[in-house]
Amino acid sequence: MTVTPQRTSAALSAPPKADAKVIAWVQEMADLTRPNRVVWCDGSEAELHGLMNKLVGTGTAIKLDPKKRPDSYLVRSDPSDVARVESRTFICSEREEDAGPTNNWAEPARMRRTLTDLFRGSMEGRTMYVVPFSMGPVGSPMARLGVQVTDSPYVVASMRTMTRMGDAALAQIGPDTAWVPAAHTVGAPLARGQADVAWPCNETKYICHFPEDREIWSYGSAYGGNAILPKKAFALRIASVQARDEGWLAEHMLLLKVTNPRGRVFHVAAAFPSACGKTNFAMLAPTLPDWKVETIGDDIAWIAPGPDGRLRAINPEAGFFGVAPGTGLSTNRTAVETMWGNTVFTNVALTDDGDVWWEGLTDEAPAHLTDWTGASWTPDSGRKAAHPNARFTVAAAQCPTISDDWEDPAGVVLDAIIFGGRRATNVPLVAQSRSWEHGVFMGATVSSEQTAAAEGTVGELRRDPFAMLPFCGYHMADYWQHWLDVGKAVTDAGATPPAIFQVNWFRKDADGRFLWPGFGENIRVLDWILGRLEGRADGVDSPVGILPAPWAINLDGAGVTPDQWAELLRVDPRSHLVESDDAARYLETFGAKVPEAIRRELHTLRDRLRGKLANGSLAA
Ligand SMILES: Nc1nc2c(ncn2[C@@H]2O[C@H](COP(=O)(O)OP(=O)(O)OP(=O)(O)O)[C@@H](O)[C@H]2O)c(=O)[nH]1
Ligand SMILES: O=C([O-])CC(=O)C(=O)O
Ligand SMILES: [Mn+2]
C-alpha cells in the first residue's frame, strides 16, 4: 500500500492579505518539506510567548528567574552547532568567477538538486513557520523585504528580536514587490511517535545563496549566523549583490552617533571582523568628559547616496546578536544594562539561583555554575563555563544608549568610516587614509587574528577585507571596484565622501598584554578622528597613513606610559615591507580583477616604506 502524504495547505492558514506569489512559494516549500502544519507568524507578543513556552516544553529553553531577569531564557545548542560554518557556506552564482576566490562556489542547478533532495520531507513531524520580515524600518525607502520559512521555533523567536517581522512586513509585499525567499530547516524530521531532542540539527550543513535569483537555502543548523537568514545571509551576502547592482553598499559595520563637547554631531560607521569589538564600540561609554556616544547599530549597515549625494546609512536590523564572553560591567556596561530582561541567551552558563553568567561578566566567577553543556562547573574545573561564541539576543530598543535617529527611514549622513582588525603586532592604534582610494586599499588589506565566531583555528592570522571575507556575496575584487565607484559617484555629485580611518585596539607588548586600554577609552581615538574632520587635530604623515602627532591624542588619565604610546604608534618599515609582500601575494590571488587604484596604492606604500628604510639607514 502506498500512503500519499497529506498535503499541508499553506493557503488555508495564510492571512487574508498575503500576496499570491508568497502563498505559492510557501505552498511549494510545504509540499517539499511536508510539515504537520503551517503557521504564518504575525509578530505579536502573544505569539512570542507561545514560542518561548513551546521551547521550554521541549527542553530547548530554560526560563530564568523572572525576579532576576524577566521574560528571559537560556538556550543550550547541540555542542556541534555553535558558530557559523564557513566551509559549508556557498555562493551559487551562475558563473564561478562571480563568486571569486574567497567564496565556496557551487553550480546552482546542481546545488538546487542537492538541496531539494535534502529538504524533501525534512519538516515531517514539525511545524513550518512562515516569517515575513523587513530589513530596515518598515516602509523606509532603504528597507528590503523577505520571507523565511523555518521549522525552528528558536529561529522564529530570534527573528522577532532581530528583524521587523510578521503582519507589518507581509503588508509591504504586493504583486510587484521584490522580496527574498529564504528557506531554512534544521534537517531533523520526526517519525510518528519519535521523541524530539532539545536542539535538533543535522551533521550535514549547507548555507546556500543564489545571488542572481536573490534566494537563500539553509540546511542542518539552528545557530544564529547560519539560520537567522535575514542577518548574514540576506543583509550581507544577498544585499551586497543587490547593492552592487543598484549603487549602494551593504556592510558588516556598526553605526554610531557622536556628540562632541561643543555640541557638534557626527555619524560614524566601523567595520571590524566578527568578535573584534563592533558591539563594544557601538555602545562605547566615553571616559572623556562631555562626550556623548549613542548607538544606531552594532553589526550591519546599509549605506546609500542620499538626494544631496552624501552617503547615508541605516541599521537594517532591529536587535543585537552579541558575543557574551568579555561583555561585562567593566567593559560594556551598556550591553549588560540592555539585557535586563526580554533576552535569549545561547550557550552561556546558568547560576544556581536561575540567572546567567559568562567569562568577563563579573571579575570573579560564582563558586558553582551549570556550564553551557549542562554539566556542573566550579572555577577550578579547568574549562570555560560559557562557550567562547555564546550569544545574547535582545531588542535594540532596549539599549539605554540607543540614538533617537536609529530608525530614521532616510538614514543618517556618514562623516567617517573606520576599518579595524585584531592585530597583536605591527598595525598602529589609528591611521587616517590620504584619500578615498587609499581608504579602500586600507579596507581591502585588513588582516585579523581568527576568533571563535566561526569554526577554524583561533588566533591564526587571515586577511579579512572590509570585515566582509565570510559575507561578500560576489567577487571580492569587484567589490573593491564597487567601493571605488561609490566614492567617485559621491564626488561627482559634488559631495564629500566620508573620511576613512584604520584602527587596532589589540596591539600587545612583549609580555602579551594589551598596550591600549580600549573600550570606553577608545573615545580618545574618536576624538582625534573627528578632530581631523574639523581641522583641529594634528597628524603626521607616515607610509601607512596619517598618524596622530605627538600630544594630538589626549592621554590624560588613560594610564598609558610614554613607552607604550610610542609602541602603539610605531610603524616599523622593515616589518611593514614584509606585510606588504604578503599583501601583494594576497592581491595576486584575485588576478586581473584587482582595481588599478588598489595596485597603485600598494606600489605607493612600498615606495614609501623603502624610502623610509633608506633614510633610516642613512641616519644611523
Ligand atoms: N582589548 C580590547 N578588547 C575588546 C575591545 N572591544 C571589544 N573587545 C573584546 O572583543 C570581543 C568581541 O567584541 P564584540 O564587541 O562582541 O565583537 P563584534 O565585532 O560585535 O562581534 P560579532 O557579533 O561576532 O560581529 C569581546 O571579548 C570584547 O571584550 C577593546 O577596545 N579592547
Ligand atoms: O553571524 C554570526 O554568527 C554572528 C555575527 O555577528 C558574526 O559572526 O559576525
Ligand atoms: Mn557580526
Automatic annotation (TrEMBL):
Phosphoenolpyruvate carboxykinase GTP-utilising N-terminal domain location? 25-244
What positions does UniProt annotate as the active site of this protein? C276
Instruction: Enumerate the catalysed reactions.
Output: oxaloacetate + GTP = phosphoenolpyruvate + GDP + CO2
CC annotations in GO: cytosol
Q: What are its GO biological-process terms?
A: cellular response to glucose stimulus; gluconeogenesis; glycerol biosynthetic process from pyruvate; oxaloacetate metabolic process; propionate catabolic process; response to lipid; response to starvation
Where on this chain does GTP bind?
Answer: A275, C276, G277, K278, T279, N280, R391, R422, F519, G520, E521, N522
- Assembly, per entry: Monomer.
Per its UniProt record, what InterPro entries does this chain match? PEP_carboxykin_GTP_CS (IPR018091), PEP_carboxykinase_C (IPR013035), PEP_carboxykinase_GTP (IPR008209), PEP_carboxykinase_GTP_C (IPR035077), PEP_carboxykinase_GTP_N (IPR035078), PEP_carboxykinase_N (IPR008210)
**What EC number(s) does the entry state?**
4.1.1.32
Keyword entries, A-Z: Cytoplasm, Decarboxylase, Gluconeogenesis, GTP-binding, Lyase, Manganese, Metal-binding, Nucleotide-binding
The entry marks the following residues as binding Mn(2+), namely K232, H252, D299
Question: In which family does this protein belong, per the annotation?
Answer: Belongs to the phosphoenolpyruvate carboxykinase [GTP] family.
Which species does the entry assign this protein to?
A: Demequina capsici
Q: Does the keyword Oxidoreductase apply?
A: no
Query: Where in or outside the cell?
Result: Cytoplasm
Cofactor(s) the protein requires to work: Mn(2+)
Against SUPFAM superfamilies, the record matches this protein to: PEP carboxykinase N-terminal domain, PEP carboxykinase-like
Q: Name one GO molecular function term.
A: GTP binding
Cofactor binding annotation: Binds 1 Mn(2+) ion per subunit.
Which Pfam families does this entry report, sorted A to Z? PEPCK_GTP, PEPCK_N
Phosphoenolpyruvate carboxykinase C-terminal P-loop domain mapped to chain residues: 248-608
**UniProt protein name:** Phosphoenolpyruvate carboxykinase [GTP]
Pathway membership, UniProt = Carbohydrate biosynthesis; gluconeogenesis
